[in-house]
Amino acid sequence: MNRSAHIGLLLATMIGLAVAAATVGSVGLAQVTTAMATIGWVGMASFVLWSGGVLGLLGMAWVSVAPGEPVTHAARFVWARTTREAATDILPFSQLGGLVVGARTLAAFGVPQPVIYASMIADLTTEMAAQLLFTLAGVAVLLMVLTDQSVQQGLVPLALGGVVAMVALMALFVFAQKPVLALAGKLGARILPGSVAMTDAIRDQLDLIYREPKRVIAAFLFNLAAWLASAAGAWIALRFMGVGTPLWAVLMIEALIFTLRSVAFAIPGAIGVQEAAYVLIGPLVGLPPATALALSLLKRARDVIIAVPALLAWQVGEARRVVS
Prior knowledge:
Signal peptide: 1-20
Radius of gyration: 20 Å
Transmembrane segments: 47-65, 86-109, 129-147, 154-176, 216-238, 250-271, 277-298
Number of helices: 13
Subcellular location: Cell membrane
Helix content: over 70%
Keywords: Cell membrane, Membrane, Signal, Transmembrane, Transmembrane helix
Largest sheet: none
Order of helices and strands: HHHHHHHHHHHHH
Distance between the termini: 29 Å
Structural class: mainly alpha
Pfam family, one: LPG_synthase_TM
C-alpha cells in the first residue's frame, strides 16, 4: 500500500471509531454494558459455536467451486475461510487483507495458485449473489413493516440505495472478471516474468468452473445458507439476552446490516457503520437501542474470540514454513 492508501485507511478507521463512540454515548454506556452482560457465558459460547458452523458453510461454498479439490479437502477450505474472515474482521486491511491471508492459507496445503484465485473469484461471485437475494428479502420485509411516513422517508432511500450499490458492485465484479484478468496479464508482462502464464491459468480455471453449473449452484446455496445462519445467530444471541424479537424481524435487520457493511467495505470491519445501523433499524421491530447496540458489540467480541486464535495459529504456521 502506498502512503495515500495508508492515510485513507487510517482516516476511515478513525471516522468509524468516532461514529461508534458517538453512538455508544448517545445510547448510554451503562445501558449497553448491562444489556451485554445478560447473555451470560453459556449464551456467548453458544453464539461462538454457532458462528463456527457458519464458517463451515462458507468453507463448503468455497471448495464447491475449486476444480480438482474433492469434498474430503473441505476442512482446508473451512480453515482458509476462517483465517480470511479473521483478517477481515480484526486487522486494519479491510477485505483485501482477508483475501490474501485466505489464499496463503490454502497455498500452504499445496493447492495450486490458479485454483485458489479462480475459486476465490467464483466463490465471491456466488456469495454476492446470495447476499443480494437475502438483501432483497430484507428490504421487502422492511417495506411491509414501515408505516410511519417520516421513518419511511429516512430509511427506505437508505435501504434501496444499499441494494442499488450492491447490484452495481456485483455487476462490476461479474462482468469485469475476465477483462481485468486480461489487463493484469498485459501489465504484468511488462513488469513480472511469468505473470501472463499465471493470469492465463486463472482464466482457464474460471472457464472450467463456469462450465460446471452444478458446482456454482452448490456454492450459491451454501453461501445463502451461511447468510441465513449468520442472521439466525443474532436471533440466538438475543434469545439468551432474554429478548423475544421474532426470527423474521432479526433476519430483516441482519439483511440490512450486512448490506450496509458490504457497501462500507473500505472501512475496516465497518466500524461505526454497523453500530449506527443497529441503533437506527432495531427500534423498528421493538428492539431497544441499548439492546441493539449491545448485540453489535457482542458480535465484535465474538469476532475477536474466533479471530485472535485463528490468526495466531496461522502466524505459527507461516513462521514454521519460513524456518523450514
